Amino acid sequence: MSKPTPPTMSYWHVYTDKEGVSRQVKCALSAFKFEGVDPHTAPQWNDKQEKSQAGVTFTVLPVGWVGEWHENPRPQWIAILSGRWFVETMDGTRVEMGPGELMMGEDQSTKERDGKKGHLSGTVGDEPCTMIVTGLDVTPTIDQPGRFK
């Protein structure tokens, strides 16, 4: 029997570059191991992240919601459950995300330029955007897109 090929899981990483400008790039989680969560559970693919304290918030962004330019309060995973939203970074990149998509918000320590600091975000379409936000108690990185490989 051949060994199964580990999967990858894509996500958008919003990060701060060395000049203090927020950017975003599509990355992939790729450190999956085929193992059970305990000895009595069938194996599954797991990509275990570094342990840290975390806070979970369920969020519903209403139709027409716009979060003016701001930084993520701390590094946080954002998983879209329903609806759509956009994130625009200081470099001018705008990405729309919908159900099942994942983002790492790590744009702390940006430097204001032309009235922009961090990112702009808002809902897209005619339904609210629901998400689960998992804030991590980790030190933000600078200029390390895809650090969660």
UniProtKB/TrEMBL annotation:
Gene3D superfamilies cross-referenced by the UniProt entry: Jelly Rolls (2.60.120.10)
Comp. bias (Basic and acidic residues): 108-117
Matching CDD domains: cupin_BLL0285-like
Species: Methylobacterium persicinum
Region (Disordered) residue spans: 96-126
Signal peptide positions (record): none
InterPro entries: RmlC-like_jellyroll (IPR014710), RmlC_Cupin_sf (IPR011051)
Protein name as it appears in the record: Cupin domain-containing protein
